[in-house]
Amino acid sequence: MNPDDTKKMVETVDVSPAMPEAPSGAASPDVFRQLLHQAVRVADLSNAQAMRMAMDFAKVYEREQGVRKEFELQLRQMALMEKQATRYAEDLAQMLRTERERRHELERALEQERIANEELRRTGLQGISHLLLAATIKDRTTGDHLLRVRRYVEAIAERLGLPADLVEEFGYSSVMHDVGKIHTPDHILQSEHHLSDDEFDVIKKHCTDGEKMLGDARFFEIARGIAREHHERWDGKGYPDGKKGDEISLAARIVSVADVFDALTSKRPYKDAWSAEAGLEAIEKGAGERFDPEVVSAFVGLSREGAVDRIRQEVAATSSEQNGSSAK
Amino acid sequence: MAKLLVADDLVPIRQMVRITLSTQGWTIVEAKNGNEALDLVRSEKPDLVLLDVDMGPGPNGFDVCRQIKADQATKDIPVVMLTAHESDSDRAIGFAAGATQYLTKPFGPLELIDTIRGILAHS
Ligand SMILES: [Fe+2]
Ligand SMILES: [Fe+2]
């Protein structure tokens, strides 16, 4: 509302000859005039409540004084402003409510996601240690082997430029590559002789068995891929599916290099430990055949920098198996 | 940033529009009647004009819109009618006068912002 109009209106009201005979019981015109004056002044601040008040007083005043005509335009404008201010107040309140609800919803969802992740991580890690314990006892593969494989895998993944969370995930997932061996009969696992084709077929099942054991939680997704594919070969001649190239998950391609290198350079019941140089040479020769060439060159690079030797020494220094058990 | 002209005889309406639209970073120029609106359209060359219909003495919003559209220099400036006249015939008059959009009072803040945003995006 134009302040001039308001002033005019109030002035008009002020100077208008009050009807002396107000209906009995009604408040005196003076009181109405003061209240109207007050309310109109506040209404100028676009306050919906005050405008509604002004409207009400104006209506009462009009009824009392019969001055409707003079104020028609102002009353119309006031009514419009009142509606407009109400609409704004409602819209803004609605926006605020929606925003608040949206934020609550988001916070709730985030909190749930966080709890779920936490839970999964805890039970997942517990599950891993149980599985590993069982598999280690049975296979007599040492914890050191798994630790070295994990460290090699993390170093390779980092060198390939993968983000830190993926490096970590590849790392903890790699230790589960042989969990399926828990189902392999002891006499085959611990055989000191070369295996027959039938026996070898039984061994091969540890890949699919491992994948199955790792269930369907997202936490083990990478681990399932590794368990199933860590004996696949780049050239497609591996098992169990004969996948080739990047049909094999990157994590499994990395584990394959780390696992074979560590197996070669460790003592097994049926063989002596190779030197690191001999092991590395065998890995390099396998590039493009057994192994992903990029993973091999990352591993060779690490080796040249001394990272592979460092990992071997560090794991040996913290070894829990003091006198190099026969399982090695 | 876009420059918008708001023509309305009521101060609180102009205030509401100014506060609402300045949240979008737009510059607001105000006119309190039809003649002032026409002067400012020519001198300020706004990117969009918001027009009330009843603005006291002088040309009403429909007249102003027709004159903006008749002038070669200003005919491409989009016009949005912003009025308490809500009948279909008033709408028809507004669009016939060359308005791009027709909003009725009471209008909501989001409605106003979205309408203007849509028009500015297309021009
Ligand atoms: Fe294996
Ligand atoms: Fe292994």
> CATH homologous superfamily of chain B - what is it?
Response regulator
Q: Report the CATH architecture of the largest domain in chain A.
A: Orthogonal Bundle
Order of helices and strands of chain B: EHEHEHEHEH
Measured on Cα atoms, how large is the radius of gyration of chain A?
Answer: 41 Å
| Count of the domains of chain B | 1
Shape of chain A: elongated
Largest sheet of chain A: none
Determine the number of helices of chain B (DSSP H or I, runs of at least 4 residues): 5
Q: What is the helix content of chain B?
A: 40-55%
Q: Give the number of helices of chain A.
A: 13
**Any idea of the CATH class of chain B?**
Alpha Beta
Largest sheet of chain B: 5 strands, parallel
Hetero groups in this structure are:
fe (ii) ion
Q: How do the strands line up in the largest sheet of chain B?
A: 2-1-3-4-5
* Unreliable residue runs of chain A: 1-29, 321-328
What Rg of chain B do the Cα atoms give? Answer: 13 Å
